[in-house]
Task: inverse folding
C-alpha cells in the first residue's frame, strides 16, 4: 500500500474518532477540531503525528486524553510552550493565548 493511501486511511480513522466524540472539524483548517459544550470549549490541533489539546475545562481535557489513549499510542509531552514557531502562554485559568494572528482566525470556525 502506498504512502498516500496509508495517510488517507489514518486521517479517515482520526476524523471518525473525533466525529464519534461529537467534535467538529474546522471549516478553515482541516487539522483543527473543536467542541462547545455547556460553556466549555475544547480544541485539538493536529500536525503530522502531534496533537495539541487545549480548552477551558481540565476535566474535559483529561477525559479526551483518556479516550485518545484508548484508541492510539500516546505520549504526553506536557505543557506547550512553543510549537511550529508559535509562542503559547498558559494562564492560571488554563486558557492558551496565541501570539500569532494567523491561528487566531482559525478559532472563528
Result:
Amino acid at each position: 500500500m502506498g504512502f498516500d493511501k496509508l495517510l488517507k486511511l489514518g486521517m479517515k480513522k482520526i476524523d471518525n474518532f473525533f466525529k464519534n466524540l461529537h467534535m467538529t472539524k474546522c471549516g478553515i483548517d482541516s487539522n483543527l477540531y473543536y467542541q462547545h459544550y455547556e460553556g466549555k470549549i475544547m480544541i485539538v490541533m493536529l500536525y503530522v503525528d502531534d496533537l495539541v489539546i487545549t480548552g477551558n475545562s481540565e476535566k474535559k481535557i483529561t477525559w479526551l486524553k483518556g479516550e485518545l489513549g484508548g484508541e492510539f499510542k500516546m505520549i504526553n509531552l506536557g505543557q506547550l510552550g512553543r510549537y511550529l514557531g508559535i509562542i503559547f502562554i498558559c494562564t492560571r485559568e488554563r486558557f492558551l493565548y496565541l501570539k500569532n494572528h494567523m491561528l487566531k482566525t482559525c478559532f472563528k470556525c
Strands lie at 24-25, 32-37, 40-47, 50-55, 82-83, 86-90, 96-98. The two ends are 34 Å apart (CA to CA).
